[in-house]
Every structure is written in C-alpha cells, then in structure tokens.
Amino acid sequence: MLLLVYIFNFVDRQILAILAAPIQADLDLSDAQMGLLGGLAFAILYSTLGVPLASLADRTSRSWVITGSLVCWSLFTAMCGLAQGFWHIFLARLGVGIGEAGGVAPSYAVIGDHFPSERRAFALSIYSLGIPLGSAAGVLAGGYVAATVDWRAAFAVVGLCGLLIAPAFKFVVRDRPKPAVADRGPASPTLGAVARVLARKKAFWLLSFGAASSSMLGYGLAFWLPSLLQRSFALDLVHTSWFIGAVLLIGGTVGVLLGGILADKLGKADRAFYGWVPAMAYTVAVPLFAAGIWTSSVPLAFLLFLVPQALAYVWLGPVTSAIQHLVDPPARATASALFLLINNLIGLGGGIYALGALSTALTPVYGSEALRMSMLFALVLYLVAAALMALAGPFLRREWVEEVK
Predict the structure, then answer these.
(1) Is it the case that residue 131 has pLDDT exceeding 90?
(2) Of the four listed, 40, 131, 301, 356, which is most buried by Cβ atoms within 10 Å?
(3) What CA–CA distance (Å, rounded) separates 34 from 253?
C-alpha cells in the first residue's frame, strides 16, 4: 500500500512533464515559466512543510498523516485541470506540494519500523519503485488521455483515482504499537533535538547535498526530456510517452532494486558502501547520458538512456537507509524529512527551473537545440554528486547508529 501511494505521488508530481507542450500552447507559457511550475511551485511548500508534518507523524500517527496527505495532493492535482492561466496552475501546484509534503518521510519511517537494519535498504528500494513506476504511469496515462481528450482531463483522472485509494490505504496500513517509554527512551524527540543531532554529522550533510546535486539533474532531465524528444527528435505526444515510459519502467526499476541489493550486501562489511555505491553509479552514468542526449537517432537514444537511467536511481535505497541510521528509531521520520528538505528544495526546486532558464538563455545561440545543450551542460551535477557521496563513505563508518537487537 505504501508503494501504491508513492506511485500516485509521482504520477501526480510528474504528469506535468508529459503535458508540458499542450499546456504551454494552451496557456502561452515560456520554458522558464514551465520550469517554475515543475520545480519551485511544487518544491517550495513540499520541502518546507515536510519537516513539521514528519515531526507530527513521529509524535502521533504516521498512517493518518500519509492518508490526509494523499487526499490533499489528489484534490489539488484534479484542480490543475481547471487552470486558466499561469497563476491559476501555479497555485494548484503549490497545493499538490502541500499534500505530498506529508507522504514520503513518514513512509520511510513506517518501513524502518517493520524491517531490520540488514534488510532495510532493499525494503526502501521496493518502496522507491514508486518513482520509476509512478513517473512512467504519469507519462503513459497523461500522454494517452491528453492525446485522446485533452490535458485538463488527464489531471482530473489521476487526481480522482488518488482519492479512491485513500480509504483502502488507511484500512490496511496501521501504525505499529510504540514500545513503553522505559524501553525506548524519549517518546517523541523534538524537531530541534533531531536537527541538532544531524547537524553534528558530516555524513548527513554530504549525503544530503550529494543527493540534492543529483536531483537537480535527475528532476531536470525527467521534466524536460519529453520536450526534447518532441523538439529535437520530432516525436509526437503518444510516441514520446511510450519512449519515456519504457525507459523509466525498465531502467528505473532495475536501478532502484540494484542499489538496495548492493547496499545491503556490501554495507554489511563496510558502511561506507552506502555512499560509495551511488558515487560509482553517477560516475558511469555521465558519459552514457551525454551520448544519448547528443545522438539524433531515436532507437539509439532509447538504448543509450536505459543504462544511465538505471544508474541514476541506484542511490535511493542506500542513501535513504543510511539517513535513518544516523538517528535513533523514534526520530526516523523527522530525520528523513530534514534530508528531503535539502534534497527537494535544491534538487526539485532548482533543477527543473535551472534547465528551463538555461535553455531560454541559450536559444539565441543554439535555436531549437538549446534544450539539448542545456541538458549536456547540466551533466556536471552528477560528477559533483559522485564526489560528495564518495566523501560521505568514511564518515558513515563513524556516525552510524547501530540498533539494539
């Protein structure tokens, strides 16, 4: 059920990418404005409200916070289809961000409560399949509905579907009983207490900014790749959705699972591998992504994107698991939310806009190929992420909080 809700989380988050072209045509929006809609409009409240909502979940009921969040973001997704201009859809995207703020960090904590340390990275990888599956479903469903009806109907359909699963989720997912206070120490760590613990841990900062750097490029590519395929490869909306959907389903699924398996296997011997596994994946992904972006052949681009798309998702299991091992169990949701605050505010909030703004700035020089060049220049962000993740490895050895069996 957590995976199903996360799939809808990313359907509602990423559907804007496949619908960018018809929305821009209908509402007369620039690339920079679309970058704001895909990034900052969503990320500003998604990132900041995630922290207090996670703290609330740690103190009260994680399942209730997730359920309420699902209802909120689904309603605002449906409202995106009613927009008549930039500010209408901007405000609706703010609402989607408010709702989704309470979904991920509490879900990480629920999984942390149910799985032991040596299996947690793989369990979180299973949950993280919601990213490629939800993104793929968003582009496939959004592309189909937009091509057969219109883009407004696509928002309405996915929003209403999310509302339908909310009651089933709350019925199935229950909070685990909390241990007695004598057995677990402080029952509800405050936000300030958790923040002070993490502020002293270098691994937290390196992992957070490494993930943020990679997310700037990852979200940017995910959002703008449909537009690139339509502008530079001359694909129509339906064929673009098939291309993106297949790359996400095949490459994304393999990468997410591979990261969790490698981290659990290698991390038993050396906790540093929770940082080193993503670092190696980013390094290998850069030249492959560059080749895929540069080619003019659709079949070759598809093959070239599959492997780096997998490598781009390897970090999810290792890093989200490592963050939970930097604090005691009662603080897991809050720690995850503080990590997501940095990752999403920088990565999601800045990446999509940065690529769109860079494309707009490069248009006088490169014309219709400006978006392609913008993506190529941005690949340096994966090299920055690789360096930060590699540096985090040794600190994870010293700052890891082992669980009491």
Answers:
(1) no
(2) 356
(3) 27
Q: Counting beta carbons within 10 angstroms of the beta carbon of residue 377, is it exposed (0 to 12), middle (13 to 18) or buried (19 or more)?
A: exposed
CA distance 133 to 218: 15
Helix (H) or strand (E) holding 157: helix 151-172
Q: Tell whether pTM > 0.85.
A: no
Structure tokens at 243: 């291309």
Tell me the DSSP string of 238-253.
HHHHHHHHHHIIIIIH
* Phi, psi values for residue 177, rounded to 5°: -60, 135
Interval 60-115: pLDDT, tens:
888 999 999 999 999 999 999 999 999 999 999 888 988 888 888 899 888 988 88
What is the per-residue pLDDT across 335-350, written as a single tens digit (0 to 9) for each? 988 998 899 888 877 7
Question: What is the 8-class DSSP label of residue 85?
Answer: S
CB-based contact 175:62 (threshold 8 Å): yes
Tell me the Ramachandran region of residue 401: left when phi exceeds 0, alpha when psi lies from -120 to 50, beta otherwise: beta
CA dihedral 202, 206, 207, 208 (to 10 degrees): 100
In this structure, how many other beta carbons lie within 10 angstroms of the beta carbon of residue 300?
A: 12
